[in-house]
Specification:
Layout: E1 2-9, H1 13-22, E2 29-34, E3 55-62, H2 67-80, E4 86-92
Antiparallel strand pairs: 1-3, 1-4, 2-3
Amino acid sequence: MKAVMIISDQAHYDEIVGNLSRLNIRGFTSWREVLGRGSKTGEPHYGTHAWPSINSAIFTVVEDNRVAPLLKFLKNLDAEAENLGLRAFVWNIEDMI
């Protein structure tokens, strides 16, 4: 099992959640308003007058074979609008109850 944390501009939220269903990834937790600044490029997402953009975060735990299709979708989505910002991080899951 793998944990996948997706951080993206809020504009991507509905498309990402819809694609989770298409990839048969049912369970996830999301935070609709996440503030931050990317480590490489892009504008800050602070939800202020100066920096009005806001990020969303989605966390899911999936079978290993579902990670590659999910990352492929996310990479293509990011390429469509690189200026919005999208990152995904994958961790091994040691145990679950």
